[in-house]
Amino acid sequence: MPPISSIGPTYYVNTVSVEPLDSRTYRSIELCSNDVGTARTWAERSLADSSEPAEIQSESETDKYFQFSYAVPSRSELSLMRALKCSYFSPSIDKLSAAWNFGRPSDAEIGTLGVDMTADDVRQFAEYDWFHNWSSDNGANWLETRVSEGRSVVVDLYSTEFSMADFGLCDMIGFDRWRYVFDRETRKVRLTYENLDEVRGQCHPDPSLN
Question: Do 117 and 93 meet the contact criterion of CB atoms below 8 Å apart?
Fold first, then answer.
């Protein structure tokens, strides 16, 4: 194994990753547990059936998740496998479903929050969820987070994304809003994505038209 020189991707165990290859249903919901043994078993199952099997090197935990580090023999990076704690958040959204819409849901219930619904707690969850799902997507950058409280708690997270175009098209910079709505009674969390504006960047003429 080459020496470790960087930290690689972070993966979350889910209903697809823990199923045997010959019986997968391809309904991908991230799993949660408050038991480290269960979380480790899920991580081991996910690694055993991955394209490049690996063994867990170490484990740790926070108030949000259990984390297991592993190194693929052919790579010089350390990757991370996580299992959420149900005491923090219990996911329910199938990330292969039409409701998820490739990570751009129009209005979807994504799970149940386990912690208090103070302004600070919901802000922290929304930012954590956004960075987990979209921070590496299309050059996305977080701009700001706003919280408003009423019968429900609403968190609006604003971000930009950069789409690099091919020949014959133009690059685009998008301005997006991710609205998290927290129901105080049920603790359910809904997410709505909206593209608020787009700015055209550099255009790339099609050389075949010259």
Answer: no
Same domain, yes or no: 164 and 126:
yes
Provide the mean pLDDT of the chain.
89
Instruction: Give the largest CA-CA distance in the chain.
Output: 63
Strands 108-113 and 188-203: antiparallel
d(CA 12, CA 2): 25
Q: Which of 91, 122, 150 is the last residue of a domain?
A: 91
In 3D space, the residue among 136, 151, 133, 144 whose CA is nearest the CA of residue 177 turns out to be 144
The pTM (predicted TM-score) of the whole model is: 0.87
Beta bridge partners of 146: 156
Q: How many angstroms separate the CA atoms of 80 and 140, rounded?
A: 21
